[in-house]
Write a structure and sequence with these properties.
Elements: E1 2-6, H1 14-17, H2 25-41, E2 45-49, E3 60-61, E4 67-71, E5 81-85, H3 88-100, E6 105-106, H4 110-116, H5 124-133, E7 141-145, H6 152-168, E8 173-178, H7 196-209, H8 221-227, H9 232-240, E9 245-255, E10 262-273, H10 277-294, H11 298-313, H12 326-330, E11 335-341, E12 344-350, H13 359-372, E13 388-395, E14 399-400, E15 413-418, E16 421-425, H14 435-446, E17 456-460, E18 462-465
Parallel strand pairs: 1-8, 2-7, 2-8, 3-6
Antiparallel strand pairs: 1-10, 4-5, 9-10, 11-12, 11-13, 13-18, 14-17, 15-16, 15-17
Pfam families: AMMECR1 (PF01871), LigB (PF02900)
Protein name: AmmeMemoRadiSam system protein A
Domain AMMECR1: 294-466
């Protein structure tokens, strides 16, 4: 088994870049080298994991079309088309193996495609790597898939399944992890700058240069999120395909001329077998969550125990625990409870004004609501409980503002109102850096047209427990 990490900016394709691609010459040279290696390896099946194929929160997209098609027409380039035979036997085996492991591999039907505007055509995360590969080699079947927003363990298991399904058919396989690194390397770039951007890229590239694969799973999810990358999950799926073997990784190039990190790297399976990395991933998660649990304050602990009790007994916590403070029993306030799983939001529900007799009961009700009644997510299940992390925000009484100059997205949350429509956004949220961003998002939640409608604004502060 061989694997590659390949970037996917469309500007790399000369017909699209129109000369600008020459600013990425190191990447172009590396891609040509990779294509030559692939031609020499002669894989019968290439599985490509693309962040820009349909991505679901809890299921892995699999393309089930007999022929997988893509073109450069969306960039105004006509006549350059790609058609690949899909190995449907492997696809069906992936689906079956996923079900055995408690994972879901999902197809996109014509009905879903039309209803949600998703496509089964090759996205640019697949098209760009395939453009360069097919310059040198075309004699392969294609598996077109994506990652999903589940935890590292499930991403790794999906990679294991990809390998097993390919090997079951007796095929020589190759896996491409499509993905760019940080999108926040430069103030001049399209996504701006964050100090975590170059920090994440330096760390990841160094680990790949030294084949320190195990250390990849120690990278803080907060760091990768703030770096705004799109390839880390692809890599984690790819690494699952090497389970049980030592892995040698080699970096061919890294650069970021447009404020986005492009890395070309290869992964080779060494002959020596080793212990499963999956066991280490499971242990690291247990250790991290144990540390979080040990540092919970009364607010977080009550939110967690309230949801856990409800999941197991289907009723609210009946007795308020002894550790709850006097303030939590005597004061009233609006409360928001946020739940995250592996760094991703899993539910968030709250009350602007108090609806219960004290803060403690407000937390109990809203923790359950965040786990069961957030319409964006399915209900929390018992097997997820050990993976969840909680935030609790205690809201001040909202106050009306007369000018946006009185707002600060880091300090104040906002409430926007227009008649019966109302939207709220908490303060100090990742990616919300300006007052306009904050108000636009709040208006969107309320169904208010920010540019065309007048609306009232209130602000509030929060006491954040995390």
């Amino acid at each position: 088994m061989v694997g590659y990490l390949l970037p996917h900016p469309p500007i790399l394709i000369p017909e699209i870049g129109r000369g600008e691609e020459k600013k990425c010459q190191a990447t172009l040279d590396a891609l040509e080298k990779v294509a030559s290696e692939i031609a020499e390896y002669r894989p019968e099946v290439i599985a490509i994991i693309s962040p820009h194929a349909p991505v679901f929160s809890n299921a892995f997209f699999l393309n089930d079309k007999p022929e997988i098609y893509g073109s450069l027409a969306r960039w105004g380039i006509y006549g350059i088309e790609f058609r690949f035979k899909n190995n449907l036997e492997i696809v069906q085996d992936i689906v079956k193996m996923c079900s055995y492991e408690g994972l879901v591999a999902a197809f996109v039907s014509d009905k879903i495609q039309k209803r949600y505007g998703v496509s089964r055509e090759l996205d640019h995360g697949a098209l760009v790597p395939l453009y360069f590969i097919t310059k040198k080699y075309k004699d392969f079947e294609l598996i077109h898939t994506s990652y999903c927003m589940l935890d590292d363990i499930k991403l790794y298991k999906y990679g294991m399944i990809l390998r097993k399904a390919i090997e079951k058919q007796g095929k020589r396989g190759l896996i491409v992890a499509s993905g760019d690194l940080s999108h926040k390397l430069s103030y001049d770039g399209p996504y701006g700058f964050a100090k975590e951007g170059p920090e994440f890229d330096r760390l990841l590239v160094k680990l790949l240069q030294t084949s320190n694969i195990r250390a990849l799973y120690s990278i803080d999810t907060v760091l990768s999120e703030k770096a705004a990358e799109c390839g880390f999950r692809s890599i984690k799926v790819l690494l699952g395909a090497f389970d049980g073997y030592e892995v040698e990784s080699k970096v061919y190039s890294y650069e970021g001329p447009f404020g986005v990190g492009y890395c070309v790297a290869a992964f080779y399976r060494k002959g020596e077998k080793c212990s499963s990395l999956l066991d280490e991933i499971v242990q690291k998660r247990k250790e991290r969550l144990k540390k979080i649990r040990e540092n919970e304050d009364e607010y977080i602990r009550l939110a967690r125990e309230s949801l856990e009790y409800y999941v197991r007994h289907r009723r609210y916590l009946e007795h308020i625990p002894d550790y709850v403070t006097e303030r939590m029993l005597k004061e009233r306030a609006g409360v928001f409870v946020s739940i995250k799983k592996d760094g991703n939001l899993r539910g968030c529900i709250g009350t602007i004004y108090p609806t219960q007799e004290n803060i403690a009961k407000e937390i109990i009700r809203n923790a359950v609501a965040a786990g069961f009644h957030d319409p964006r997510f399915e209900e929390v299940t018992e097997d997820e409980l050990d993976s969840l992390v909680y935030d609790v925000d205690i809201l001040s009484t909202p106050e009306k503002v007369n000018s946006i100059s009185e707002l600060d997205p880091k300090k104040y949350g906002v409430i926007v109102r227009k008649g019966a429509r109302q939207g709220l956004l908490l303060p100090d949220l990742e990616g919300v850096d300006t007052t306009e961003q904050q108000l636009r998002i709040a208006c969107q939640k309320a169904g208010i047209d920010y540019d065309r409608e007048d609306f009232e604004i209130e602000r509030f502060t929060v006491e954040r427990h995390k």
